[in-house]
Specification:
With 215 residues, the protein is of the alpha/beta class. Helix content is 51%, strand content 13%. The protein is globular. The mean pLDDT is 87.
């Protein structure tokens, strides 16, 4: 029996996933969490074979939780769930050690297949994510040279968090409060982001994010 921990802040989403799992004879619910700290606590308690983890978790986002889980429990497979387009987070999730990345629009069969592959120690990668991953590695899936990766792919995980918030119009102090960082630390991240993306100010950064369909 594959024991699954569901981590999502929306009860209706957790309920829907539980209904899907109930129809799979080899998969059982091991627990559920509605925020980042609870997800960590459940995972640390053990008796879990696969974690389903939402990207947009309260208190600590899913990628932060993923990074900590892989540091503390490297053998525990984590499947990332998201409503965001694959190109925004799929490659980042896999680079951080996720066992796969699924959009919440995936059907029930795809979800259960992903859980079974993760539990067996394999990666679950959709064709769309495979194309993104190939591009990030510098080659397309048909062997041809892949287009150059967007400039924001150079950003670290924390820089990408700050980037999205800046592009959404948040101030440095607001971002500092949300991410529990010092304001001068956020300012340092902002300077690195401007340098790596080649823009001069927050307005150009927001326009870049719109062109890349990030916000």
């Amino acid at each position: 029996m594959i024991r699954v921990l569901i981590c999502d802040d929306h009860q209706i989403v957790r309920q829907g996933i539980k209904m899907i799992l109930a129809d799979a004879a080899d998969i059982a619910l091991a627990g559920e969490a509605a925020n980042g700290p609870d997800a960590l606590a459940h995972a640390r308690a053990g008796a879990i074979d696969v974690v389903l983890l939402d990207i947009a978790m309260p208190q600590r986002d899913g990628l932060d939780i993923l990074r900590q889980l892989k540091a503390e429990l490297p053998r525990l497979p984590v499947l990332m769930l998201s409503t965001y387009p694959d190109r925004q987070y799929a490659v980042r999730s896999l680079k951080l050690g996720a066992a796969g990345y699924l959009n919440k629009s995936a059907d029930a069969e795809q979800l259960t297949e992903a859980i079974r592959r993760a539990a067996s120690g394999k990666l679950f990668i959709t064709p769309g994510v495979a194309e993104l991953l190939a591009g990030a590695l510098g080659a397309s899936t048909d062997g041809a040279a892949a287009p150059e990766a967007p400039l924001h792919e150079r950003l670290s995980h924390r820089e990408y968090q700050v980037f999205r918030l800046l592009a959404a119009g948040r101030s440095v102090s607001e971002i500092a409060d949300q991410l529990a960082l010092a304001a001068n630390t956020v300012s340092t991240y902002r300077a690195r982001i401007l340098d790596k993306t080649g823009v001069r100010n927050d307005v150009e950064l927001a326009l870049y994010a719109v062109r890349q369909e990030i916000v």
